[in-house]
Structure formats: C-alpha cells, structure tokens
Design brief:
single chain, about 425 residues, alpha+beta, BirA Bifunctional Protein, domain 2, Rossmann fold, 8-stranded mixed β-sheet, 5-stranded mixed β-sheet, about 35% helix, RNA-binding
Length: about 425
RNA sequence: GCGACUAUGGUGUAACGGUUAACACUCGGGUUUGUGGUACCCGCAAUCAGGGUUCGAUUCCCUGUAGUCGCCCCA
C-alpha cells in the first residue's frame, strides 16, 4: 500500500504494527482463543459469569486511585472532541468496581465474575511487556475474607491444572497485607517507611542477601521479617500469621498442596487490604509470576455507598502462552478450522459443490469449498496447507455414483461414503 | 527517562574493504489436464535513511530511524 507524500512521490506505508502491539493472524488468534476457551470452560464450570466493557474510560477513574506518575506517564490518555479526558484502560479492576458500584442495589451478591480482554499501558516494550496485552480478570465480590479467599486460591490452581500443568510445574506464594503492616508497625516503621519497605520486599528475590539487608538497614534498624519469623514478639503479628497459615492449611486440605507462605509477596500498590498471592512457574531458570491478585475491600466504596468486599486475581496472555510452551502442554488450536475441504474437479462443479456444502453445514460440519480452477492435486495441497483434516472431491462422478471418497490427509487413507448418508465421517 | 546490542529478499541466514550480493525456506509456474506431501526444473524478491572516510563501502565512522534486551516502573 502506498500513500502520496508532499513532494508528490509515493512512500511505502509500513506493514509493521504499532510499537509494542501485536497483529494476530488467524493461526495466532486461534492459539489465543484456545487459551481463552479453556479459561472460560474452567471458570463457567466454577459458576463464574463473564462481563465485558469498553476499553475507553474517563481518565478520572484512574486519577482517583492511582498515583499521578502512573496515570500521566503510563497510560494512553487523550482529550476527545467534547473536551473529555479519556484513558484506554490499563487494568480492569477500576472498571469492575465502577460497574459493581453502579448497580450494587440490584446485583445478586456474592458475584463471581470474570472478563477477558486487552489492557493498554504506555511503557517501553521489552520481554513479556507490551503496550496492548490480554488479561483475564477473575473476581469474587460481596464476601469478606474467609471462604472466598480459599476459593480464589483453589480456583487459581484449578485454572492452571486444566491447562495440563501438574503440581511440580507451579507454586502459589501467599502473604497478607495486614500481616506485613503489623510487622512493620512492630518494627517501628512510619507510614512512608512501610511503603518503601514493601517496595524493597517486592524486589527481594532479585537481590543478593547482602544487598537486601543493606537496603533494609537504610529504611529501618529492625527487620520486620524477624517479627514475622518470631511471631511471639508481637500479638497482632502472631494473630495475623496464624490466620494466614490456617487458611493455607484449609487450601491444602482442598487438594492444593503447593501453596506456601512467602512474606516477599507484596503486590505493588495501595488498594490491597488483605491476602495477596502470586502463582509462579517453577520450571525455568527465570521463574515468573503467572497469576497475581489479592483482597481489596475498599475499592468499590470509592464510588460512595456501602463497601463491597472483594478478592480477585488476573493472568496475562503472554506469560500464560510462555508457560504452556515451556512445559510443552497441549493446546488444541484447530477447534474452529474447517473440517473438510470440498474439491471441485472442474469449475462447472462449483455450484453443485456449494449446494452440497450447505447440506453438510446444516448438519454442523465446517466446510471449505474450493472456488479456484486449480487441479485436484493442487487443491489437496491447498487443503493440507490450510490444516484442514479431510478432503473430498465433489463432481460429476460423485453425483452419478452417489459416493463421496473422503480422504484423511494425515494418513492418506480414503473412505467411500454414500452421499445420502451424509457426514458421519467427522468426529 | 537511562544504557547496551542489532539492522541484507516475505522469513531465517551468508558475503578478508574489491566480479553479476550467496544459501535455505516461503511464494508463483512447470515436469504431471480427477487425487497432495518426495524429487527435479524455471521464476519473483534485499543491503533501514542521510552524511563521512576510500580508487572502491553490505563491510569502517557519525547522525537519524526502527527493533531487541536490560535498568526505572509494573496499578
């Protein structure tokens, strides 16, 4: 494609997608849909309902709860023709909170909701980080801490297992904000100190022990982690720790053995109020968080009215796809591909083949009909290239004999079928 | 925002500063006009942009642009 330039010449328009975003050709999208379909299957079996919203949101939605820096530098924000400030959603949770708050009097709580869609962040792209990526957000709203927290952890394990992962492939690391806060208070930290300490804790795994304790000493003389290890020194820490460990016991009792307490799990910023967790890939030398989330009991009340307690977590498409690939997990990407290629010996056969295709489709068979003048040999080649598993020519011979010779491309075998008997050849 | 590395057909690679820029895959056509995957033949198609050094630049230098990977950040 070309476009005229100011000097009257033509310049080639780039076929590259915009920086940090991806094109999904049918094969790519089939893989995405295969992942999404499996998530939907697991989630709907668990009683979850899917919701959706526009990626366009009022900028104030994020300005209200997030830091200035994040909104101004890491979102796509613009002014529309009506002078409204608009942001492309960088995450789903504020939208969810807005939707729930808007109908809180009529919704049947507790809600089990999920949503799959893309999120936009204006950041420098690098490995595993794009400007437009897909996420699945899963939330339980309207229940205080307790069973809902257990369900969230068990569901996270179920989701990844349903992709074929075993317990050796992942681990769920859990902590709790109240526990961390209590330990920080016991260690004498101020509010600002707590924030910088949590930020440091989040990076603990990437640092050497020496570097961590040096950085920690700069913030506080007493190590909050020591209060968690030796919980007897502070009654609040002891109570929070027991509560968390009891919950992990419960989760293990529900068949999820690979869940551990890890105080270095902090989950970034402010809105978490209770349990926080991340599900990690155990394989690779570079273990990454696949899922992350926690309890956020105050977010919905930002919109006024009674608070709606909530817990939720999210997973991204890039890390999930990496996980599936690195563990060689099966993913059926052919589910929506045509099942049979109807070849036409001569162009004159096309109308009859089209009519026959309609009859097959009425029986639920996904049919591809050749419309070119290519030879049958080339049509078979074409079918193979398209990944269509079965091939059958439909022309004068077939009509005269009432027999369709259905070829299985993978094996080369043929089965003769009476045309009137129709499509028992597809699984 | 900071830094490192990279840039050759559609894709992946090659070419001591010196012939017509090579090879593989893909794609199109043919050997084969109602039954494919093998084989063989033919063909399409590239040095990111601008400047510099040089008799001569894909190769060396500078700037720009783009990409990748780190740092920062990660709601």
């Amino acid at each position: 494609m070309t476009r005229p330039t100011s000097n009257g010449e033509t310049a080639k328009l780039s076929t590259e997608p915009y920086k940090g975003v991806r094109d999904f050709y049918p094969d790519d999208w089939a893989k995405m849909e295969a992942m999404f379909d499996r998530l939907r299957e697991t989630l709907t079996l668990a009683g979850f309902e899917e919701y959706q919203a526009s990626p366009l949101e009022r900028a104030e939605l994020y300005e209200a709860k997030t830091s200035e820096e994040i909104v101004s530098e890491q979102t796509y924000t613009f002014t529309d023709r009506g002078d409204r400030r608009v942001t492309l959603r960088p995450e789903m949770t504020p939208t969810l909170a807005r939707m729930v708050a808007g109908r809180r009097r009529e919704l049947a709580f507790p809600l089990r909701w999920f949503s799959i869609g893309d999120r936009f962040r204006y950041e420098r792209p690098q490995r595993g980080r794009l400007r437009d990526f897909y996420q699945c957000d899963i939330d339980i709203l309207g229940l205080p801490e307790g069973e809902a927290d257990v369900e969230a952890l068990v569901l996270a394990a179920r989701l990844i297992r349903d992709f074929g992962a075993t317990e050796q492939d992942f681990v769920i690391r859990v902590s709790a904000r109240p526990l961390l806060n209590a330990a920080c208070v016991a260690a004498g930290l101020t509010e600002d100190g707590v924030r910088s300490y949590l930020r440091l804790l989040d990076k603990k795994d990437k640092m050497t022990t020496e570097a961590f304790s040096a950085a920690r000493t700069a913030i506080t003389a007493q190590d909050p982690l020591s209060f968690i290890e030796d919980a007897g020194r502070d009654p609040v820490v002891a109570a929070e720790k027991k509560k968390l460990l009891d919950r992990l016991e419960t989760v293990m009792g529900r068949g999820v053995a690979n869940v551990v307490f890890d105080p270095s799990i902090t989950r970034g910023f402010d809105y978490y109020t209770g349990m926080v967790f991340e599900l990690y890939d155990t394989n690779l030398e570079n273990p990454r968080a696949l899922f992350g989330g926690g309890r956020y009991d105050r977010l919905v009340s930002l919109f006024g009215g009674d608070p709606v307690p909530a817990i939720g977590f999210a997973l991204g498409d890039v890390t999930l796809a990496d996980f599936i690939e690195s563990h060689s997990l099966p993913l059926d990407t052919g589910a929506r591909r045509p099942q049979i290629y109807l070849g036409t010996p001569r162009p004159e056969d096309i109308p009859a083949a089209q009519a026959f295709a309609v009859r097959l489709r009425e029986r639920g068979v996904r049919v591809f009909v050749n419309l070119t003048a290519r030879s049958l040999g080339d049509q078979i080649r074409d079918a193979a290239k398209r990944g269509i598993p079965f091939f059958a020519a439909y022309g004068a011979d077939e009509i005269a004999n009432n027999v369709l010779r259905v070829k299985t491309l993978s094996t080369g075998g043929e089965t003769g079928l009476a045309i009137d008997a129709l499509p028992n050849f597809v699984r």
